[in-house]
Amino acid sequence: MFKKFKLKKELKELQQQILFLEQKRTRSEAAIISALLKHVDPADDDVDYFNTYTAQIDDLELRIREINEQMNVL
């Protein structure tokens, strides 16, 4: 029972981290879309930030799936 509580707590923390990273990623995403609409190459920094935040979000989502699988077993 304690393990399930611990997993639920971790899930909540991971979801909060994802929301935070998505907010940070939004700025670079907007800059990339703006550049594409203007038919210019997006700034390398914006692309790097977008890729970095996206990779971190993907890692957290993978961990969430693992936790959900563990909770289904319990």
How would you characterize this protein structure?
- There is one protein chain.
- It contains two helices and no strands.
- With 74 residues, the protein is mostly helical.
- Helix 1 (2-37) packs antiparallel against helix 2 (44-73).
- It is rod-shaped.
- The mean pLDDT is 95.
Radius of gyration: 17 Å
Class inferred from helices and paired strands = mainly alpha
Question: Kindly, what is the distance between the CA atoms of the first and last residues, rounded to a whole number of angstroms?
Answer: 8 Å
Mean pLDDT: 95
- Specify the helix fraction band: over 70%
Write the H/E string, N to C. Answer: HH
Low-confidence stretches: none
Biggest pleated-sheet summary? none
Percent of residues in beta strands? under 5%
Shape: rod-shaped
Oligomer: single chain
Total of DSSP H or I helical runs spanning 4+ residues: 2
Q: Give the tally of β-strands.
A: 0
